[in-house]
Design brief:
Largest sheet of chain B: 6 strands, mixed
Distance between the termini of chain B: 41 Å
Order of helices and strands of chain B: EEEEEEEEEEEE
Number of strands of chain A: 11
Mean pLDDT of chain A: 93
Number of strands of chain B: 12
Radius of gyration of chain A: 14 Å
Low-confidence stretches of chain B: none
Helix content of chain B: under 10%
Oligomer: heterodimer
Largest sheet of chain A: 7 strands, mixed
Low-confidence stretches of chain A: none
Largest interface: A-B, 27 and 26 residues
Chain lengths: 115, 117
């Protein structure tokens, strides 16, 4: 069974640009969550999508947005990039099967560098 | 508000010795607690979780964790450390609410485990 796939793995942008990151969850997983990982702030929850609906959002500015498609694939977008947006962006998928609460399957991340 | 604290930035242990990585939590109601591990340049991997029941839970790669409600702790343990256990370990908590929060975990800052030969 293929794992969570994130693309691109690495990217470099300049301030003011925008970026779109993609995540393909494990087949059959309908929930996709996004996290930002930085050395200073650690792992912070961005948002979660389930069946194309955002059902949870973290404390990030409106420049951070996301969506989920009917095949459960998800994208997140960051507009007007700032230096502080440099981070590893992790996507995680999960099922809602009984007994699997909190068991997230993470991709390897997209490392964004903003210059 | 829910929170997780990992008081040690780094834990050093010799191979073959027991290891403990500490975690304390603050959450209203009954907690759902988790441990994840991250190897360099990789995503996180689920190790184990406590939802209810036995306070000692066993997980992957020989790890176990002990839930202590009175001390609000959920320490990760392993009887005999391996060099390959060296990684970054995260404790996480989720409030015992409905399924709408399935993917939202609150993570601690992480503890780097160094196992030396």
């Amino acid at each position: 069974k293929a794992g969570v796939t994130q693309t691109p793995r690495y990217l470099i942008k300049t301030r003011g640009q925008q970026v779109t990151l993609s995540c393909s969850p494990i087949s059959g997983h309908r929930s996709v969550s996004w996290y930002q990982q930085t050395p200073g702030q650690g792992l912070q929850f961005l948002f979660e999508y389930f069946s194309e609906t955002q059902r949870n959002k973290g404390n990030f500015p409106g420049r951070f947005s996301g969506r989920q498609f009917s095949n459960s694939r998800s994208e997140m977008n960051v507009s007007t990039l700032e230096l502080g947006d440099s981070a590893l962006y992790l996507c995680a998928s999960s099922t809602t099967r009984t007994g699997t609460i909190g068991e997230l399957f993470f991709g390897e991340g997209s490392r964004l560098t903003v210059l | 508000a829910q929170s997780v604290a990992q008081p040690e930035d780094q834990v050093n242990v010799a191979e073959g010795n027991p290891l403990t990585v500490k975690c304390t939590y603050s959450v209203s109601g009954n907690p759902y607690l988790f441990w994840y591990v991250q190897y360099p340049n990789r995503g996180l991997q689920f190790l184990l979780k406590y939802i209810t029941g036995d306070n000692l839970v066993k997980g992957s790669y020989g790890f176990e964790a002990e839930f202590n409600k009175s001390q609000t702790s959920f320490h990760l343990k392993k009887p005999s450390a391996l060099v390959s256990d060296s990684a970054l370990y995260f404790c996480a908590v989720r409030g015992a609410s409905g399924s709408s929060n399935t993917g939202k975990l609150i993570f601690g800052q992480g503890t780097t485990l160094q196992v030396k030969p």
